[in-house]
Amino acid sequence: MRATAVALRAPWRPGYGRSGKSPITCTAVRVWEVAAPDATDRLEWILLWDADVADFAQARTCGLQYATRWVIEEYHKAIKTGLGAERLQLESAERLFAAIAIMSVVALRLIALREHLRRHPDAEAAQSGLSPLELEVLRARSGCRLRTVREVALAIGRLGGHRNRTREGLPGGQTLWHGMNTLHILVEGVLMAHRLNDFG
Q1: 0.70 surpassed by pTM
Q2: How deeply is 12 buried, as exposed, middle or buried, from its count of CB atoms within 10 A (0-12, 13-18, 19+)?
Q3: What does the pLDDT profile of the chain (200 residues) look like in tens digits?
Q4: Secondary structure of the chain as H, E, C letters
Q5: Class of 71-199 per CATH?
Q6: What are phi and psi of 120, to 5 degrees?
Q7: CA distances, 148 to each of 3, 156, 195 (Å)
Q8: CB neighbours of 27 closer than 8 A, spacing ≥ 6?
């Protein structure tokens, strides 16, 4: 990591020249991999930071905060694309906030599942984030034992329309959302059946 103070000026534009506004003072932080698993695909970021960076710890804080951007982007994608927050036809901010709050729980579960799949695909299925009942219903629906996080994600993907062909890769966020939605309906059906049995 390296950091240096910079002053950013507005670009020169044909017909307008350079803006008369004062330059913006900030810190440029460079983050790069010296030794990456794939030497042809090394990470390198040039980050603009609105605070002084006087030592490695401050530069590291800048890099770590930027690294969380990808999770935030995935969260917004899950809320907007997967769960359809922008398609809601609610007329008041309060109702919209309440709906998005509920969607956030689902979105975070999807992100957690994808992170488990990315980082620990061979971990035990119980670490996928599903409840014991959800896991048992998914096993019954898929007809498979589902021993690993990868197998759980693929089974949820199948519920969402993924065919698990080699060339298709792993199921994406929207497919997992559709699969989780189907799984929730199946779980609700199981719970309702238990209630009806108790009632009878």
Answers
A1: no
A2: exposed
A3: 999 999 998 877 777 767 677 889 999 999 999 887 887 888 899 999 898 899 999 999 999 999 888 888 888 887 887 677 777 887 788 888 888 888 888 888 888 888 888 889 999 999 999 999 999 999 999 999 999 999 999 999 999 999 877 677 788 777 888 898 899 999 999 999 988 887 76
A4: CEEEEEEECCCCECCCECCCCCCEEEEEEEEECCCCCCCCCCCEEEEEECCCCCCHHHHHHHHHHHHCHHHHHHHHHHHHHHCCHHHCCCCCHHHHHHHHHHHHHHHHHHHHHHHHHHHCCCCEHHHHCCCHHHHHHHHHHHCCCCCEHHHHHHHHHHHCCCCCCHHHCCCCHHHHHHHHHHHHHHHHHHHHHHHHHHHC
A5: mainly alpha
A6: -135, 60
A7: 42, 13, 31
A8: 3, 4, 5, 6, 48, 49, 50, 51, 52, 53, 62
Domain ranges of the chain: 2-67, 71-199
Report the residue count for the chain.
200
Q: Which two tokens stand for residue 134?
A: 């959800």
